[in-house]
Amino acid sequence: MRIVIAGGHGQIALRLATLLAARGDEVVGVVRNRAHVDDVAAAGASAVVLDLERADADELAGHLTGADAVVFAAGAGPGSGAARKDSVDRAAATLLADAASRAGVRRYLLVSAMGLDAEPDPGRGEVWVAYLRAKKAAEDALRATDLEWTILRPGRLTDDAGTGKVTLGPSVGYGEVTRDDTAAVLAALLDTAASAGSVLEVVGGDVPVADAVAAAVR
User: How much is the pLDDT for 121?
Assistant: First the structure.
């Protein structure tokens, strides 16, 4: 497959690129900063330098031609304000959906977040509230398209070594999950057409990734 990852220098994105490239897929990482190109290449992917906060859908679509799937793994990141939560976590995700439609790419995986179905706790601060609202708006916009989308909502992400085992389903309860295992779930979902139209939560667990994905979409 040819897979384009938006936010290609992100921690999950680099792990996903490594997995996909190792199994023979062609991977393209879309990055904003030219200094990140070497890191993307080291993961086995090629890089496209494009600022998703400034690009338009036609420009992005030109880089998606021939892709079998797109993955949105971008985020404004720690230290960014409320405005960039919206311009990256919502607007860039929506831009990728628009561009995918224009390029004829049907499959779209969105890396989202848990805890979006309840009103955000204002006590967590303006930026946190903006982040959750941006993620929820991105999900809502994607659901409104006719793309073959899958939304993955990881729990609290850690840099611990992956175990290859998770708990995956529509509602699994809040917990931690490694970035390694999150990337492995994304790779498995790309192979699972039946996951289209699913919103899945993932945390650490004791079910091998392939089995967890198969069970979640059965």
Answer: 86
Which residues of the chain fall below pLDDT 50?
A: none
191-208 per-residue burial string, b: 16 or more CB within 10 A, e: under 16: ebeebbebbbbbbbbebe
Distances (CA, A) of 206 to 21, 33, 50, 123, 195: 26, 38, 39, 34, 20
Whether the CB-CB separation of 119 and 167 falls below 8 Å is answered with no
CB 199 within 8 A of CB 115: no
Position 119 scores a pLDDT of 85
pLDDT in tens, 19-40: 999 999 999 999 999 999 999 9
pTM listed for this prediction: 0.96
**DSSP characters over 40-66:** HHHTT-EEEE--TTT--HHHHHTTTTT
Residues in the chain: 218
CB-CB contact of 155 with 202 (8 Å): yes
Written as six digits, the tokens of 174 are 């809040």
Structure-block tokens of residue 43: 């993961």
Express the helix, strand and coil content of the chain in percent, nearest 5 each. 40, 25, 35
List residues bridging with 119 in a β-sheet.
none
